[in-house]
Amino acid sequence: MYALKQTPYFARAFKRFAKRHPELRDATRTTLNTLRENPFAPSLRLHPLTGRLEGKQAVSVNYAYRIVLCVEIAGHEVVLHNIGSHDEVYG
């Protein structure tokens, strides 16, 4: 099991995301539960990021929406940084 830690920025982005996309509540909950159990599960499509987000990874909520995070293996933590559409989190 991994602990999920939210940055203050993620907490604000998550509130906005939940208000704008109530239809994605179940998909988001499933993604977060899977992250807690196994952040390397193939269904998450975990991938490293480059450019200004180098050192972070991203997972998919669905085809259009992503969660940006850092997996800290030694501490068994997943630090959540951002959530939103592809353009919102990468742009």
Please explain how this structure is put together.
With 91 residues, the chain is α+β, with helices and mostly antiparallel strands. The chain has a single domain, classed as RelE-like (YaeB-like fold). Helices cover 34% and strands 30% of the residues. It is built from three helices and five strands. Strands 1-5-4-3-2 form a five-stranded mixed β-sheet. A hairpin with an 8-residue loop joins strand 2 and strand 3. The protein is globular, with a radius of gyration of 12 Å. The N and C termini lie far apart (31 Å). The model has no long low-confidence stretch (mean pLDDT 94).
Instruction: Please state the oligomeric state of the protein chains shown.
Output: single chain
Strand content: 25-35%
Helical fraction: 25-40%
CATH hierarchy class name: Alpha Beta
Report the structural category: alpha+beta
What's the CATH H-level homologous superfamily?
A: RelE-like
Give the low-pLDDT segments: none
- What Rg, in angstroms, do the CA atoms define? 12 Å
The main sheet orders its strands as: 1-5-4-3-2
Estimate nothing, just give the exact number of structural domains: 1
Total helical segments: 3
The CATH topology comes to YaeB-like fold
What does the largest sheet look like?
5 strands, mixed
N/C terminus separation: 31 Å
Reported CATH architecture: 2-Layer Sandwich
Give a concise summary.
This protein is an alpha+beta fold. It has helices at residues 8-20, 25-37, 86-90; strands at 3-6, 47-48, 57-60, 65-72, 77-85.
